[in-house]
Amino acid sequence: MPLPLNDPLLELGLFFIAGHLMKVADRNPSRTEASWGMVAGAGSGLILAVLMSVRPSFSTVVLAILAGSMLTGKVDCPAHWTGLGALVAGVLLWGVAPPAVITLLVLAVAATMDEVGDEAAESSGRGMKRGWVLKLRPFLKLTAVGAAIWALLPWQGAWAVLAFDSGYTVAEIEPRGRTL
After folding, report:
1. Angle 15-18-23 from CA coordinates, rounded to 5°
2. How far apart are the first and last CA of the chain?
3. pLDDT tens track for 17-52
């Protein structure tokens, strides 16, 4: 049963928080901080499950991000698996709005390109002069906005991608010693 979220700002705020928590879970924590990564992963997964139950465009976006991460092997630590488990549990509990399959495939390709580009930028070090562009993960954002312009994705979905990525980016630029 979908949860009644009808406030666009609340939905975007939740996407921002989910993106932020996902990056917190993504960090390589020390042994003392490992539990915080798992809590962040679970929180992100549950928030994304709630959002997937609300709108088809949200389930399309979340599944595309998940597909890009899984296809490139980025789900690779206990915090990620905890987040995925929480997402699956939430989906079983609240259901999922049916995604737009063609749009999902297009966005999944863009999300995969983002992950591959980010990996290339990280592995090349200083040798890649324009690697900072790939670190911005532009493909999914541009594809989501393009899909909204061409009416393949409702604008809420494009805004959701931008909010999620903003939360993720803010977590990336925090000082290393702070997590939330």
Report:
1. 130
2. 31
3. 999 999 988 875 555 566 888 999 999 999 999 999
pLDDT for residue 96 is more than 90 = yes
**CA angle 53–65–23, rounded 5-degree value:** 100
In Å, what is the CA distance from 77 to each residue of 16, 25, 28, 95?
A: 22, 9, 9, 26
Nearest to 19 by CA among 113, 160, 178: 160
Span 121-161, pLDDT tens digits: 777 665 556 677 777 889 999 999 999 999 999 999 999 99
DSSP per-residue codes, 42-83: HHHHHHHHHHHTT-HHHHHHHHHHHHHHHHTT---SHHHHHH
Residue 18 C-beta-side C-alpha neighbours within 13 Å? 29
The DSSP 8-state label assigned to residue 6 in this structure reads -
Calpha distance 143→80 (Å, rounded): 25
Looking up tokens 């679970």 gives 42
The tokens of 92 are what? Answer: 């079983």
